[in-house]
Write a structure and sequence with these properties.
alpha+beta, Protein Transport Mog1p, Chain A, eight-stranded antiparallel beta sheet, 6 helices, about 50% helix
């Protein structure tokens, strides 16, 4: 019983922090999803403070964290603009395999297409987390060594530019560790640079910060 009493204040503090996060997310995510996550967080706090039910509190806390992670994912997807500089975004593809999440959206205008993709790693930990970091490292090295590759700055982020045979590609190294890339078989790098100057890079970077 003594150990449980010691753990109680720590868990209560953690739940309070999670509740604060959920309130911040509430301004941009769906209200129902926010309510569900908040209810789980509150129930976890109630179980540990009123009923001394550590196992029940941990179960509810797990649902609380799951709900918040889903809200964070919704926020990330909502940041991909529906239209930018006359380019209209298509359906958003969202895949997650072995802790590596990939979000992709194709934008079109007058027959020209460009593809924006966001790759993030998280929740895998251990060897899989390390694998994701290696993947990002090799991707950056590959971009830097591509013919015509150079580095520029957009919205205070480093961007690797490659332009081969009229096909442009930009790889943005986000401060969060995620990778944002835009490429096109119809457009050159100069046009892609102009597109990305107005893209919500900073907001996406902040949304993907763990």
């Amino acid at each position: 019983m003594k150990n449980r009493n010691l753990q109680g204040p720590l868990i209560t503090t953690a739940i309070a922090t999670v509740l604060t996060t959920s309130l911040m997310l509430a301004t941009t995510a769906h209200a129902n999803a926010v309510d569900e996550a908040a209810d789980a967080c509150k129930e976890a706090a109630r179980l540990i403070t009123e009923e001394d039910d550590l196992e029940g509190a941990l179960e509810e806390a797990s649902w609380c964290l799951t709900g918040l992670q889903q809200l964070k994912e919704e926020i990330k997807l909502s940041l991909l603009p529906d239209e930018l500089q006359g380019y209209v975004g298509g359906d958003i593809k969202n895949e997650s395999i072995m802790g590596i999440s990939t979000v992709e959206r194709v934008y079109t205008q007058d027959g020209d297409k460009l593809t924006v993709s966001l790759v993030t790693t998280g929740g895998a930990g251990g060897a899989l987390g390390g694998l994701g970091e290696l993947g990002k490292l090799f991707g950056a090295l590959e971009g830097a060594g591509a013919p015509g590759g150079k580095k520029i700055r957009i919205q205070r982020r480093t961007v690797i530019v490659s332009d081969e045979g009229g096909k442009g590609a930009l790889t943005v190294q986000l401060k969060s560790g995620a990778t944002l890339k835009v490429e096109s078989s119809d457009l050159g790098s100069d046009e892609l640079v102009e597109f990305m100057r107005e893209f919500p890079i900073k907001e996406i970077d902040e949304a993907t910060t763990n």
